Automatic annotation (TrEMBL):
The EC number(s) this enzyme carries: 1.1.1.95
The protein's name in its UniProt record: D-3-phosphoglycerate dehydrogenase
Residue ranges crossing the lipid bilayer per the database entry: none
UniProt keyword list: Oxidoreductase
Every D-isomer specific 2-hydroxyacid dehydrogenase NAD-binding domain range: 135-274
Pfam assignment, any one: 2-Hacid_dh_C
Coiled coil: none
Length: 309
């Protein structure tokens, strides 16, 4: 029987395995190559590490990546380009990611409104809770970015997007390619990075971009730590060009206790929780992708090796 191999480092791998078995894919689902023939593995599901496994799987056809980032996989020299590479950006993950961004933006907006702050007074005064919403700029309109845009627009936010390739998008105001990045930035009072990490996007959150934002803009990064030039962020905060930042990712995945961001009054750090994985949901979604692949149908989340995302 052909095999689906789950890498053991996947969070809650045993639960993932049990759920995937229940989907009746027609494959045997294993977590280890011990006591199995590697040449029977046609589908592998991984999270981070890839080099050691791929070199042992001569007949691998489909590689599924838990989470939305694939930069660590694309850069693996041992990855043959004939293998179909798919990001498992399932509906649960898209919803969780977009919820994180929306909650972060709403919290930032509310924190700036004086009438909403709790006060203890003996005199009742009226207040106006109607206030203008800042314009939100989304860097990246993939599966996660589109989910975020839909929720923000439904809440009344004016939203624009910046992307690197031209194709139909759900937003009416979309800026395309590097030449339009400045025009996009000038419109973005809150800027959200949801980009894939490629050689063209490393360090894209930098002094040049920050200087083009409206003064006092707010930054949210839920993509990769390498998108951000950390020294440039500190400088922008010191000069008040940026009013603050919420970072779910930084260059050091587990920052030391004395990290310069940890005690900064204008920076909120969260421990890479925007893209939390749910094994049962990912197993269900994996089974659908596998079925589509073997039926020869188009695959949601398929990675373009040339574009690196």
């Amino acid at each position: 029987m052909k095999l689906i191999l789950l890498h053991p480092e996947i969070p809650q791998a045993l639960k993932f395995q049990t759920s995937l078995k229940a989907q009746n894919t027609g494959f045997r689902v294993v977590i280890s190559l011990d006591n199995v023939a590697p040449e029977l593995v046609e589908v592998a599901i991984i999270w981070l590490t890839v080099q050691d496994y791929l070199q042992r799987l001569p007949n691998l056809k489909l590689l599924l990546i838990c989470g939305s980032g694939v930069d660590h996989i694309i850069n693996a020299k041992s990855l043959p380009r004939h293998i179909s590479l798919v990001r498992l950006v399932d509906p649960y993950l898209r919803n969780h990611f977009s919820d994180y961004v929306v909650k972060t933006i709403v919290q930032h907006v509310l924190s700036k409104e004086e009438p909403l702050r709790s006060k203890c007074t003996s005199h009742w005064t009226g207040g106006n809770l109607v206030f203008p919403l800042p314009k939100v700029g989304l860097m990246g309109l993939g599966l996660v970015g589109e989910a975020t845009a839909i929720k923000l627009v439904a809440m009344g936010f004016d939203v624009c997007g910046w992307v690197r390739t031209s194709r139909p998008r759900i937003l009416p105001e979309v800026y395309v390619e590097k030449e339009a990045l400045g025009d996009f930035a000038q419109q973005s009072e809150i800027i959200v990075c949801q980009l894939p990490l490629t050689k063209d996007t490393v360090g894209i959150l930098n002094t040049r971009l920050f200087a083009q934002l409206p003064r006092g803009a707010y930054l949210v990064n839920v993509a990769r730590g390498a998108h951000l030039n950390e020294a440039d962020l500190l400088s922008a905060l010191d000069t008040c060009q940026l009013s603050g930042a919420c970072l779910d990712v930084i260059n050091e995945e587990i920052p030391p206790a004395n990290h310069r961001f940890g005690s900064h009054p204008k920076i909120t750090l969260t421990p890479h929780i925007a893209g939390t994985l749910e094994p049962e949901q990912q197993a269900i979604y994996s089974a659908k992708i596998i079925a589509c692949y073997y039926r020869g149908e188009s695959l949601a989340g398929i990675v373009d090796y040339h574009a690196c995302y």
